């Protein structure tokens, strides 16, 4: 005999032999007389897929697949986002479990949005991609070299071109190679013409100063004569100028102590403890530190001749 009022709330009355008992409806728990909602998501009694979210409701629960998965929540299947418009990736799309990611081709980098690719400027790298000149291109770069060099097979290094091996560099006489270029040379008395290739006789001072280092003049006979500025002397080739060593003879350049030869001149200096006099740059005077006081006179390095009554250091 059914008596619905015997079991309270969500309890259901179940007849037994000679009696009855109350049990809770599915989704509830208790002794049957008193029933409360069972949180299937917390107890783990739900049947949601591992890739689904469990949501508790009064007397039951629901399952919802995570983003990136399709299904009824009890069975969820991965969605391949790359099948639709390449996942909106500009270059390459890789499907992952419940997600996907975009990748860029070599020479490009993924922007902050994670979909578009921007060119990498390899030429801005601090380690120097090319030895000489770097030209950035979309997705790559190219190396080039300065004049007088050619690009190595490695595409990065620059190798000097030996111009002298190709028709003597165009020189009429001697050719010498140099990094990035070459130079033509002539045997005296020939001079290198204005084309820097041909050797010709010097007939005036207009062509490379007649081959003279310093002063070029034309004799009455039409010959070129070279001379040198002061403190220089004409070399054995009668063209070049050689520095005169003023300190080399017995006069020591007129210096009281030390003489230092310079190209086209010389300087007088002093030994340690002395300095050059301001009134006569060829002579030296001793230096006292501290300086002599109270009318004392510096007579040697750190040596003062002091007046009576001032025997201290520096005539103090």
From TrEMBL:
Keywords: Calcium, Disulfide bond, EGF-like domain, Glycoprotein, Repeat, Secreted, Signal. Pfam families: cEGF, EGF_3, EGF_CA, FXa_inhibition, hEGF. Residues 1-36, 37-77, 78-118, 119-159 form the EGF-like domain. It is found in: Secreted. SMART domains: EGF (SM00181), EGF_CA (SM00179). CDD domains: EGF_CA. InterPro entries: cEGF (IPR026823), EGF (IPR000742), EGF-like_Ca-bd_dom (IPR001881), EGF-like_CS (IPR013032), EGF-type_Asp/Asn_hydroxyl_site (IPR000152), EGF_Ca-bd_CS (IPR018097), Growth_fac_rcpt_cys_sf (IPR009030), NELL2-like_EGF (IPR024731). PANTHER family: EGF-LIKE DOMAIN-CONTAINING PROTEIN (PTHR47333:SF4), VON WILLEBRAND FACTOR C AND EGF DOMAIN-CONTAINING PROTEIN (PTHR47333). This is EGF-like domain-containing protein. It comes from Xenotaenia resolanae.
């Amino acid at each position: 005999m059914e008596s619905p009022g015997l079991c309270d709330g969500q309890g259901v009355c179940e007849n037994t032999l000679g009696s009855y008992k109350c049990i809770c409806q599915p989704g509830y728990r208790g002794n049957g007389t008193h029933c409360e909602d069972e949180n299937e998501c917390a107890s783990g009694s739900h049947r949601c897929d591992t890739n689904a979210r469990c949501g508790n409701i009064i007397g039951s629960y629901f399952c919802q697949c995570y983003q990136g998965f399709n299904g009824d929540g009890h069975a969820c299947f991965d969605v391949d986002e790359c099948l639709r418009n390449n996942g909106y990736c500009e270059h390459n799309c890789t499907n992952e479990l419940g997600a996907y990611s975009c990748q860029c081709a070599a020479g490009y980098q993924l922007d902050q949005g994670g979909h578009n690719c921007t060119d990498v400027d390899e030429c801005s790298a601090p380690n120097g991609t090319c030895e000489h000149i770097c030209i950035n291109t979309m997705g790559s770069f190219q190396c080039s070299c300065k004049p007088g060099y050619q690009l190595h097979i490695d595409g990065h290094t620059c190798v000097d071109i030996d111009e002298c091996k190709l028709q003597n560099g165009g020189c009429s006489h001697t050719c010498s190679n140099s990094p990035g270029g070459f130079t033509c040379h002539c045997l005296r008395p020939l001079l290198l013409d204005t084309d820097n290739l041909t050797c010709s006789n010097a007939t005036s001072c207009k062509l490379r100063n007649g081959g003279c280092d310093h002063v070029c003049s034309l004799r009455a006979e039409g010959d070129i004569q070279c001379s040198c500025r002061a403190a220089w002397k004409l070399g054995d080739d009668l063209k070049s100028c050689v520095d005169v060593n003023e300190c080399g003879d017995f006069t020591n350049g007129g210096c009281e102590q030390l003489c230092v030869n310079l190209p086209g001149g010389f300087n007088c200096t002093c030994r340690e403890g002395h300095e050059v006099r301001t009134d006569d740059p060829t002579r030296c005077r001793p230096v006292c530190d501290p300086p002599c006081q109270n009318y004392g006179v510096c007579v040697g390095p750190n040596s003062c001749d002091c007046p009576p009554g001032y025997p201290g250091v520096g005539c103090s």
